[in-house]
Amino acid sequence: MKLVTVDEDSGGQRLDNFLMRHLKGVPKTHVYRIIRSGEVRINKGRAGADSRVEAGDVIRIPPVRVSERAEQKTQAMAEQVAMHVASNAPAKDFPILFEDDHVLAILKPAGVAVHGGSGVSFGVIEQLRMARPAAPFLELVHRLDRETSGILLVAKKRSALKNLQDQFRERETGKTYLAMVLGQWPTNKKVLDKSLHKYLLPDGERRVKVVAKDDPDAMPSLTLVKVLGSAGGPQPYSLLEVTIKTGRTHQIRVHLASEGMPIVGDDKYGDFELNKALARTTTGPVLKRMFLHAWRLHCTHPFTGKRLRLQADLPDELAQFAGQVLPGAMAAATELAP
Length: 338
Prior knowledge:
This protein starts with a strand and ends in a 5-residue tail after the last helix. The protein has helices at 15-22, 28-36, 68-88, 124-131, 158-169, 251-258, 272-280, 316-325, 330-333, and strands spanning 2-5, 41-42, 45-46, 58-61, 96-99, 103-108, 139-140, 149-155, 174-182, 191-192, 195-200, 206-211, 223-231, 237-244, 292-300, 307-311. Strands 5, 6, 7, 8, 9, 10, 13, 14, 15 and 16 form a 10-stranded mixed β-sheet that branches. Strands 1-4-2-3 form a 4-stranded antiparallel β-sheet, with no helix packed on it. The chain is an alpha+beta fold and 338 residues long.
């Protein structure tokens, strides 16, 4: 028997689909058999094939016989990736927002993945481990998109990792972002709850789209929006405070784009022509990255039980852009967390 913790990327998947990704070489009929028999458990409870797994869930998977060839291929690929990452990750420390014996909160820059894999040689966690070779345990608590900057939590003890992931799963944490979108966001549009579906492009790159709530692959998603400032003119912008209640892949980006107001600089769901113009201009506001920043994070400290409130101010490139297009909104974006 083995226990598998669901990562944030896999949250929202059906149990049968989740198992098939983890049990390469096992016939589908056998996957459904072990689910029906109750041998597969989610957080120690029985579950059906159509049950949804959430980030932080612990899945119990019984021993299963797999194709020897598939098992060898999977093991060889895992070893190859691990060796490549370990040999190419340079040691690097990141700005620290908070640290003690249990938790490390850092400021992740844009353009850096949180971990290696899927075409990325290394990420934040591999660089941290190389910079701290004596650290016995360093694991990501959650994820941020590669082009998103801001607060990233790392657990320094396994007990802290489980505690914090439980908090994320039970929605006991508060995650708030700052996003600049194209257009004037209506102040009365405060709740976005369209269901999302994650899929792959032919080249293997991940994408997410809005689907009907009764779609078999629909992942319930909830985003709360507050307008901090907006401006009209030939190119209107709005600075938004965005709080997510579910942690779906690309959730904020897709929810905002689905309202016809994508995030400025978003290279997957945004206005590509405007993005190019902003990156190349020599006469106006310049922006060469996506304007999405993990601004505030509230959680309960896994050891002391006290409320931990973190805030990461906007990076200079975002603050400068916002100051040019929406100078009146910057005061709200620099207030300290209550």
